[in-house]
Amino acid sequence: MCFAHSKGARFVLKGNVSVKKIIDPKKRAAWIAEKVNLTKTQYMDGINLDIEQTIRPHTPEYYALTDLVKETTEAFHKEIPGSQVIKLLLLTTSHQV
């Protein structure tokens, strides 16, 4: 056990990705797998999804973000029991066409 963990500290990976890059389910799955593996190899305790982007409602990006949060949470909890998945989503919605 490392010094920080011995003192009760928890460390999470910052997960930031362009939502446009994770519309494709295969690319999204690859991104999630990469973050799970990095978290495991670095002995971290989870991930902080820090997404700050403009997303228009009912667009492919809108639904991809929902899927990203769901799938990331499922993958982390399966692969790293007890892990934290923190969602910090600061979105600006635009109704302009």
Number of domains: 1
| Straight-line distance between termini | 53 Å
Helicity level, as a percent range? 40-55%
Strand order of the largest sheet: 1-2-3
Strand residues, percent: 15-25%
Tally of DSSP helical segments: 3
Profile the largest sheet.
3 strands, parallel
Number of strands: 3
Task: Please identify the structural class as seen in this structure.
Answer: alpha/beta
Multimerization status: single chain
Q: Mind telling me the C-alpha Rg?
A: 15 Å
Gross geometry: elongated
Low-confidence stretches: none
Report on the structure:
This is GH18 domain-containing protein. Keywords: Glycosidase, Hydrolase. Residues 1-97 form the GH18 domain. This protein is of the alpha/beta class. The protein has one domain. 42% of the residues lie in helices and 22% in strands. The chain contains three helices and three strands, in the order αβαβαβ. The chain has a three-stranded parallel sheet with strand order 1-2-3, with helices on one face. The mean pLDDT is 89.
Question: Keyphrases for this structure?
Answer:
alpha/beta
Please render the helix and strand layout as text.
Blueprint: H1 3-6, E1 13-15, H2 25-41, E2 46-54, H3 60-79, E3 84-92
Parallel strand pairs: 1-2, 2-3
Keywords: Glycosidase, Hydrolase
InterPro entries: GH, GH18_Domain-Containing, Glyco_hydro18_cat, Glyco_hydro_18_chit_AS
Domain GH18: 1-97
Concise synopsis of the structure shown:
It comes from Staurois parvus. Residues 1-97 form the GH18 domain. With 97 residues, the protein is α/β, with parallel strands linked by helices.
